[in-house]
């Protein structure tokens, strides 16, 4: 609060001095009366420090200065419309302002942008020279944009200035509202404690600030960085991200000042900075010393190469957006990219791997600074599209269809290696050239079909199930078991599938079966013989 009081005191006291240029101006002081003003600094509420500071400083204002007083958040909790011009700008208003501040409640929100706009309008800022002093201990909470307002008021005002006193705000918070002052040519003052207030009052009362020295001519932008793949070489075509840090002798550990992408220009305060450029996996940094009257144009050497990769399943084929591209470069690896990628990498050994379905292609490159590579990566796969049909040329199976692709060659133990899998009709597989077996499961039916794949070609794998569908309705049933009708030499039937409840529906290979229905009551299990014909539906009712 002392910092606030310092800023308040300095801002108001200097209404007749040159540091804020208030002489012969109409001024409105805006006081933040939100609930956060009850917070304490050194055991004293911030609102009390503000009241005392106003009372002390206003006693030093010349009697003919026209000072007004506005507040927000002093009447209603949670309202963004609680803004009031309590004392209109007038000469000799010191006591009225002090009395208003002393009787004020502190309980609302922080519509600071709207308050500054209303104060400017009350001062007729488009017709006369006008100044607003905002004292706030918080950031905008009602959706306003103080930075945009500052630009608007400066552009449309005759000679409008807003000075902002940040009361107990952190440095980062202060940056969010300092633009309101800076965009109007005003000052932002960080207020922190009562001691600072006292020192400021002594200094400003005893020795008014001298008129500022004429400013040297300033350039619009004093930092224009570029990034190159090598010294004196070309800029990357990929995005470049620039960051600006203060040079505090700790490298990039200094305060983050600004950032931008690609062709970017900065206007920064004179001083020493570190510029960091990042593109893809490459990074460079350079120290610069800036002045206000000269544009510095550093060229940062990324010492890198740029590679453009286009993934294609076969020579001459279109780029496949499902192909995954990974790049392993010295010190790291890229995130997954799909179809094609343009990436900047440090010099050295770089491995590019493209995966598409069960196919994969990779290439290792020795890259040097400034090298630009644009190449197709051919995975070398063909496609297989799989569908299952109840009969040859009949209806397509569309429910509970699952696929497994195996290598055709069997291992010594008679099994095959599984290559990949998928679910549903019209499933597509990207596969290296060769011979395979397509296994399909449709509910209780399983079958296989061999097929072959050629690079760049589509193979339609249409599997005939030779199957039909049985649907059972058995009121009161607990569940079902379905057996093959034929018994083995031991007199046992092979169980094909089962289900629970009163209804079931499943796909079965054509043939003869026995349905065993279990009931929830004492009713005995019931056996029902039935036949499934390929491509047909058989509906059974069991009582």
TrEMBL record:
Q: Which InterPro entries match?
A: VWF_A (IPR002035), vWFA_dom_sf (IPR036465)
All residue ranges annotated as the VWFA domain in the record: 26-205
Which SMART domains does the entry link to? VWA (SM00327)
State if Signal is listed as a keyword. Answer: yes
Report the leader peptide range. 1-23
Keywords per UniProt: Signal
Q: Taxonomically, which superkingdom?
A: Bacteria
Q: What is this protein called?
A: VWA domain-containing protein
Record organism? Mesorhizobium vachelliae
Organism placement in taxonomy = Bacteria, Pseudomonadati, Pseudomonadota, Alphaproteobacteria, Hyphomicrobiales
């Amino acid at each position: 609060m002392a910092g606030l009081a310092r800023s308040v005191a300095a801002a108001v006291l200097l209404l007749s001095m040159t540091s804020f240029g208030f002489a012969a101006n109409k001024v409105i002081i805006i006081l933040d009366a939100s609930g956060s003003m009850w917070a304490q600094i050194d055991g004293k509420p911030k609102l009390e420090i503000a009241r005392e500071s106003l009372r002390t400083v206003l006693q030093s204002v010349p009697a003919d200065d026209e000072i007004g007083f506005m507040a927000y958040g002093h009447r209603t909790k949670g309202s963004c419309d609680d803004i009031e011009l309590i004392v209109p700008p007038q000469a000799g208003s010191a006591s009225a302002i002090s009395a208003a501040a002393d009787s004020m409640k502190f309980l609302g929100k922080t519509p600071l942008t709207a308050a500054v706009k209303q104060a400017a309008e009350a001062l007729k800022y488009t017709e006369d020279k006008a100044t607003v002093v905002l004292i706030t201990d918080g950031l905008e909470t009602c959706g306003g944009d103080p930075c945009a307002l500052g630009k608007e008021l400066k552009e449309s005002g005759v000679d409008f200035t807003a000075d902002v006193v940040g009361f107990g705000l952190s440095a980062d918070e202060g940056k969010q509202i300092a633009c309101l002052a800076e965009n109007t040519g005003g000052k932002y003052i960080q207020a922190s404690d009562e001691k600072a207030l006292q020192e400021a009052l002594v200094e400003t009362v005893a020795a008014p600030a001298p008129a500022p020295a004429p400013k040297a001519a300033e350039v619009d932008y004093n930092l224009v960085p570029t990034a190159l793949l090598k010294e004196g070489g070309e800029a990357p075509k990929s995005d470049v991200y620039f960051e600006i840090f203060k040079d505090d002798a700790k490298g990039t550990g200094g305060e983050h000042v600004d950032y931008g992408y690609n062709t970017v220009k900065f206007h920064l305060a004179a001083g020493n900075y570190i510029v960091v450029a990042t593109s893809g996996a490459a990074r460079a940094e350079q120290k610069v010393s800036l002045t206000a009257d000269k544009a510095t144009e550093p060229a940062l050497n990324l010492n890198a190469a740029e590679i453009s990769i286009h993934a294609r399943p076969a020579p001459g084929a279109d780029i496949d957006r499902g192909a995954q591209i990974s790049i392993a470069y010295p010190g790291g690896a890229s995130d997954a990219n799909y179809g094609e990628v343009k990436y900047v990498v440090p010099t050295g050994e770089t491995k590019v791997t493209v995966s598409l379905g069960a196919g994969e292609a990779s290439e290792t490159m020795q890259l040097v600074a400034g090298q630009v590579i644009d190449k197709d990566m051919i995975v070398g796969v063909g496609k297989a599209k799989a569908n299952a049909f109840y009969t040859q040329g009949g209806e397509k199976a569309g429910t509970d269809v699952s696929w497994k692709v195996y290598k055709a060659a069997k291992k010594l133990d008679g099994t095959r290696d599984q290559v990949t899998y998928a679910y549903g009709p019209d499933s597509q597989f990207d596969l290296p050239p060769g011979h395979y077996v397509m296994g399909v499961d449709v509910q209780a039916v399983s079958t296989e079909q061999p097929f072959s794949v050629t690079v760049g070609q589509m193979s339609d794998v249409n599997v005939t199930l030779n199957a039909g569908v049985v649907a059972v309705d058995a009121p009161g049933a607990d569940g079902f078991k379905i057996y093959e009708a034929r018994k083995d030499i031991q007199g046992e039937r092979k169980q094909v599938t089962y289900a629970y409840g009163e209804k079931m529906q499943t796909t079965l290979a054509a043939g003869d079966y026995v349905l065993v229905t279990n009931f929830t009551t004492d009713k005995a299990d019931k056996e029902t013989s039935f036949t499934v014909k390929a491509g047909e539906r058989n509906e059974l009712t069991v009582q």
